Amino acid sequence: MAQAGVVLDKDQFNCSICLDVLKDPVTIPCGHSYCSSCIESYWDQDDYLGVFACPQCRQTFNPRPVLARNTMLTDVVEKFKKTGLHDDTPPPPNHSFAEADDVECDVCAGRKSRAVKWCLVCLASYCDLHVQPHYESAAFKKHKLVSASKRLQEAICPRHDRLLELYCRTDERCACYLCLADEHKGHDTVLAAAEMQQRQRQLCDMKQSSQLRIQQREKEAPELRQAIFSLSRSARAAAEESDAVFTELIQSIELKRFEVRELIMAQEKTAVSQAEQLLDKIQKEITELKKNEAELDRLCHTEDHIQFLQSSQSVLASPILSALPPVTVDPNLNFGPVMKAVSDFKGLLQEVCQGGFVSIYERMRDVVIVGPPVPTVHINAPQSADTGSAAQMVAPAVPPLCGLDQSPVNPLNPFLNPGPALPTFAFSPFGSKLSTGSRQRHLQRRAHPRRK
């Protein structure tokens, strides 16, 4: 690799989880590579969620990807270790001269060197060369040296150019000894070191209280995750069961639709068949009457007395007509009463669906994980007894879970952030939303006439 002119860095072959050189590298579907044991342990923590994410790009996978050893990357890493190119790092830059972010030495002439120490008595910065008198000369033995920093300039009083060694509790600001004579005269002042010790004790108490809250939250977090997992599993089961129930209802409605259609067709067939039979009977009687009429007309024109007398005996008796059943002769005859009954059934079904959806919606809002928010508790750090009016530090209140507060909860989803009050609505008979004004009208049950 060195002969090809390629410069490789050790960080290019590091696992982003353990921050060490890849061991038994594997590549996940998004293209990033990790140690086999590292990514397996990382995904084992999210096994209960069923969703697995890449630690770098956060791309999610479901189901859990099957990991395979990246043989090519394994060979490259092995050759990289053998060549030792990862140890060939460039030499560190020369930091003897001050750069843009460094503190300059106050003694150097010309180009300033980088300061390493700052004297609290001399109020000056020194490089490695000019700080030596503070170590070697007895005149500087009592001077206190600290690491050089640009923030140390803030420790100088802007009015008197003296070191800020005091703290005024009245004005809650630092001061020098000369400030006690004018600006902070008669104020409650203490040494800055003493104030720092007191506040450090208060911060330690706050840290212990924070650790207790962290332990409590760490105990509540798995329980909340388990509740989320259980509710999600129950929601999926309820959705599948509701789908099955509504599928049965749809099949039942389809069956009733088919039965009504068959009833209409059967009634049509029966009525038409009866009418056709009666029509056939009437046609036969008409034929018989016409035949008898023709015979009478022939006899009326016969001149032979003997033939007339002999033939008239058979036609003197007129044919007997059968009694006809009542016939409805109405060109507007239709299935209007049947459609009225179907319309009544539709209205009754809409009322039942409306009441059912309202009942489902009311019960749906009772299924929650996070209950109403509780008032936050402010924990006050104990005040030290050696000060008369030390500033009391109050621990920040822990924000409520899931961003809940005293504002009204979203009526459609209690886990969403609270927003402005939304208008109430109702479901239509078949699931669509209705406005507030139409809700009252749909909630009033209409009186449908019952067919006897």
From TrEMBL:
Stretches assigned to coiled coil: 265-299
Domain annotation RING-type: ranges: 15-58
Annotated InterPro entries: E3_ubiq-ligase_TRIM/RNF, TRIM8/14/16/25/29/45/65_CC, Znf_B-box, Znf_RING, Znf_RING/FYVE/PHD, Znf_RING_CS
Region (Disordered): 432-452
Bias (Basic residues) ranges: 439-452
A Gene Ontology molecular function term of the record: zinc ion binding
Cellular-component GO terms for this entry: cytoplasm
Domain (B box-type): residue spans on this chain: 152-192
Record key words, sorted: Coiled coil, Metal-binding, Zinc, Zinc-finger
Domain of life according to the entry: Eukaryota
Pfam families found in the cross-reference section: TRIM_CC (PF25600), zf-B_box (PF00643), zf-C3HC4_4 (PF15227)
Protein name in the entry: FinTRIM family, member 67
Gene giving rise to this polypeptide: ftr67
